[in-house]
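Design review, sub-item: ligand-bound model
Attendees: FS, YL, KQ
YL presented the inputs for the thiamine diphosphate complex:
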Amino acid sequence: MKTILDTGCHIVAQAAKSAKVDFVSAYPITPQTSVVEEIASMVQRGEIDCRFLPVEGEHSAMAACVAAAATGARTFTATSSQGLLYMHEVLHMASGCRFPIVMANVNRGVFAPWTIWVDHQDSLSQRDTGWLQYYCASLQEVFDTIIQAYKVAEQIKIPIMVNLDGFVLSHCVMAVQIPDQEIIDRFLPTVEPAWRFDPQNPTSYVSVTGPDLYEGFRTSLHQDQLKALDLMVQAAREYQELTGLYHGDLLDLYRCDDANTFVFAMGSMAEELKLSVDILREEGIKIGLIRLRVFRPFPKEAISKVLPEDATVVVLDRNFAFGHEGGILFSELKDALFTRRDNVRLLNQIMGIGGIDLTYQYMAEQVKNLLGL
Amino acid sequence: MATSIKDLPRDEVVMKGHGACAGCPSTLALRIAGKAFGPNAVCVMTPSCTVASLGLIPKAAYDYPILNVCFATAGSSASGIVYAYESLYKKGKLTGEMPTVFTWIGDGGTYDIGLQAISAAAERNDNYIFICYNNEAYSNTGVQRSGATPKFAATTTTPQGKMEDKKNMPLLMLDHQIPYLATASLAYPTDFYDKLVKAKNTRGFKYIEVFAPCCTGWKFPSSDMIRISRMAVTSGAWLLYEAENGKIKFNGPTAKIMEGKVELSPLEDYFSCQGRFASINRAANKEEIIAEAKNKILADIEFMKKRAAF
Ligand SMILES: Cc1ncc(C[n+]2csc(CCOP(=O)(O)OP(=O)(O)O)c2C)c(N)n1
Ligand SMILES: [Mg+2]
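KQ shared the predicted structure:
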C-alpha cells in the first residue's frame, strides 16, 4: 500500500489504471477535464496498457464504450453535466445491453443558465436509465468505489456510475492510499464477458425484439438492479478485508446509534454534515447522519432499519424534482418509508444548487430551522 | 480482381427468410460485401431498413456478429470495436487474425444524424470500413427526405419534390484525407466487389458508398432495380470512382464519360421511370427542370474532372 497526494480527477484516472482497464473513451468537460488529460497521458507514457479513443463528443464516448464492451474489453469513461445529458440515449443502450461499463461522473449543475459548479441534477436526472449509481464523499472513497464498481458491474452485468462532486472533490487534493496491485488483482480478476463478438458463432445483438421477449429483457434488468444491493455490500466487505479500507456498505452512518433525528444526504455535503451533527449534538439534539453511498438501487431496507418509529429525518437535496414538492432524495425516501405507516416525520430542504458553498455551520443552522429549534 | 460475378466466392451471409422488400438493393449489396469480407468480420448497424429486415430476436438473417447501435453512433461504435480489438490483441487476451470491422449504414445514418461521429473517425484514420448504402431517403420510417435526396424527388416530407440539392458526401469524406474511398453501383457488382476487397486490404479509414435504388421509396417496379442502378451511372446522376490516398480514378462508364468517349444517357429516361419524379413529368416547365438537373450533373462532372487532375 502506498499513499499518494493528488486531485480528485487524477485519483479517478489512477483508479482506472489500477482496475487495468483495456479501453477508455472520453471527452473533456469542466470539471472532469483533467481525468481525460491524465488518462491520455498515462497511455502515452505507457503507464497503463490500454487504448484511449479521443472522440468528438460524449454521445460518441458512450457509444464507443458500449462497442468496446461488446468486443470484450474492460471499459471506462468519465464525464460531467452536459456530457452526461448528451449521453442519455446511449446510457439506456448500455444498461439494456447489460455491459459492465464503469463511468465516473463529476457532478455539476446543468444548463440553462450555464454553471460549472456542483449540484446533483446531472446524475439524478439519469435515474431511470438502468445504471447503478454510487455517490462518494472523499477521494479515498472515489478510488475504492471505482474498483468496487467493476466488481459489482461484472457480476451483475449492469453499468455503474460513480459520482463525485465537481471542484469540491474533483479539484481538491487529498491523501489517498493505493492498495498493492496484486491485492487489487485478487479483488478484481479478469472475467470473460457474457456476450462478445464471435465470428465463429455469429449472433446479432440487441436487434428488433417483439413484445413477447422485449418485456422479459427489461424485467430482468429491473430485477437484477435490486439484486445488486447484496453484491454491493459484499464488494464493500471483501474490499475491506483485503485492504482495510471501508466507507460503509450502502450507507455511511454517523452517530446514528441513539439518535431520534437524522440528516439524510449524499456526496461531499454529507461528509461536511458530520461536523454539523457534532455541533447539534453539543446542543443536546440526538441527531445522526445517514449518508447515502448508493442511490441506485435505492437501499430502502437498509435505511428503514436505521430509523426508529418516531424518527425525524431532515432530507437535504442538492437537486430539484421539478413539478414535485421537495427534491429527488426526499421523494425517494418518502416512497421507501410509505409502507411503514408509523410516526416517521420527513422534512426537506433544497440547498447547494449550482455550487453554493455548504459549510457545516450553515447546514447546522438550516437543520435547526427545519426542526423549529 | 473479379471479372465476372461467377468469380465471386460462394459464401452467403444473407440467409433465406430475411424481411427485405423484393429487389432491395441494400440486401443485395450486403450479400456482395459478405463475399468480399469472408466470415472473419464484425458489423455495426444503425436503425434502418437493414435492421428492420434482419428479423426479430432471436432470429437473424445476416450471418455476421452484428451490434445494433444508436442512430448517430455508427462512426464512434466501429471505432470503439477497433480500439478494443487493438488493445485485447496487444495484451494477448485475443489471438488469431483480427476480424474486419465494417459498418452497414443508410444515407440517413451517414449524411445526416451520424455525420459528426463519422467525420471524427475519418480524421483519426481509425482502421475500419464505413459502408453507406444510399437509397436517398429515410426508407425505414416511410421515405422522408435526407441530405442525400436529390433535388425534385418527392418524399413524404417533400411531397411536391425536394427544393434543395443533395450534399456531396463522398467528396466530403475524400477531404478527410482518408487512405481509401470508393463509390459503387449494383449494376457493376464486380467493380463493387473489387472495391470492398481493396478496402479490406487497406489500413486506416475506408469509405465506400453504394448507390441503392429503393423500389418502394422511389416508386418503380422491383424488377427494375439493377436497370435503374445502371441508368443512374450512364446518365451521370451517380459517378463511379475510387480514390487511393486521395488520388481519384474514375471507373466503368463514368471513366468513359469523363474522357468524353460516351454521351450521357438521357436524364429524362432516368426520371420518367421513377414515381418520385412524377411531378417533373407532369410539370408545365418540365423541359426547364430537366435542363436544370442536367446542368447540375454537367457542372459536377466538370468539377470532378478538375478535382481528379488536382
Ligand atoms: C435518434 C433516432 N432518431 C430517429 C430514429 C427513427 N429512425 C429509424 S430508421 C430512420 C431512418 C433511417 O434512414 P437511413 O439511415 O437512410 O436507412 P434506410 O431506412 O433508408 O435504409 C429513422 C429516422 C431513431 N431510430 N433514432
Ligand atoms: Mg436511406
